[in-house]
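Predict the 3D structure for this chain.
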Amino acid sequence: MINLIWCVFIYLLGNFHLADDFRYAFICEWYEELAARTRTFQFFYYSGSKSIEMFDVKTRKMFLKTNLASTPIELQDLYIGASINVLGRQLTIVDFGDEFTKRKLMSKLERTLGYIKPDAVERMGEVISAIYDRGLAISKMRLCKLNQNDAFRFYQEHAGKSFMQDLMNYVTSGPILAMELVGDNAVLRWRELIGPTDPAKARSEAASSLRARFGRDVTHNAVHGSDSPASAAREVEFFFPSCAKQTFTNCVAAAGCTLCVIKPHAVKAGLAGKIISAIQDQGFLINTIQLFNIEKANAEEFYEVYKGVVHEYPGMVNELTAGPVIGMEILAKSKTGHLVEEFREFCGPMDPEIARHLRPRTLRAIYGLNKIQNAVHCTDLPDDGPLEVEYFFKVLDRSA
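Done. Predicted structure below.
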């Protein structure tokens, strides 16, 4: 009886919103640091007004109600496994909240696995730009190194085939960039984007496809894509396991590096690929790259040196937690001993307006909006490069 009353209450509450609003329901979790506990909420999103409501599942009381006009959450940001920031709280969506939402969004939020093969990693910026241009989102990403056992497990369906050993040798010859892609009919759309398996066929039938542009032959064909929803589920789990820690070898260097972080506003705007291409075109090496969702406590710790010193500190923390960020370890092609300073000059002044006047070809001048949403974070001090890289790729990666 109580459950029936609760459901009626929630239904009636939804009718108080704009008539053209669609209400989408999810189950989300939030780790409350002060109480050291995970809380579960019913999360309602109204697509017309972009407002939300949260109800504590345990107490069945309203926890939060707000309009997100200042920092809007879009419907495409909401999918199972997504991490979203609501007024400084990092929420993880763990399930659909009702059948209406599941029915409406299941196909629109399909997942698939894509990875960039070793000899095309140097073109990762162009591939990532093509993904965003196709209307797909990247929900997970990491550079990793497969060994022969990893490759055999991933391609076990081809065991015994004549090309198997050549394929395994190829995909273990260098780092690969694995990505979970999310979007409307993601499996089909990604397959269309990458093109036929044979790059020669791709060049004649789909000249703008990724394999036509970057592939060499049937084995060295630049990118991989899941061929069905069932394969996508298995392959995503292989690279991004839900229950076990990732065991693939990462590519983090010990010294002589600097950090670059593409901020949430730039990621959400689909600019990550362009920024990555600009970095590579400038002659810097991206030694490793990974997508992170930053908790507020981690953002405050990472930016602690700016606290009380930089007026924009609170805004910087909020921006770093406003959505996914892409962290990169940057190396120099030649050992100059001044990598941090050189990369910082390439990023430009912190204020994009100043950058546009003084350094118009820098990253912040081209892609920055203001002093807080200035496209990228880069290491300021030479000695801090390895420390910041270790914080992202060791500390944050362990806590993910």
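The mean pLDDT is 88.
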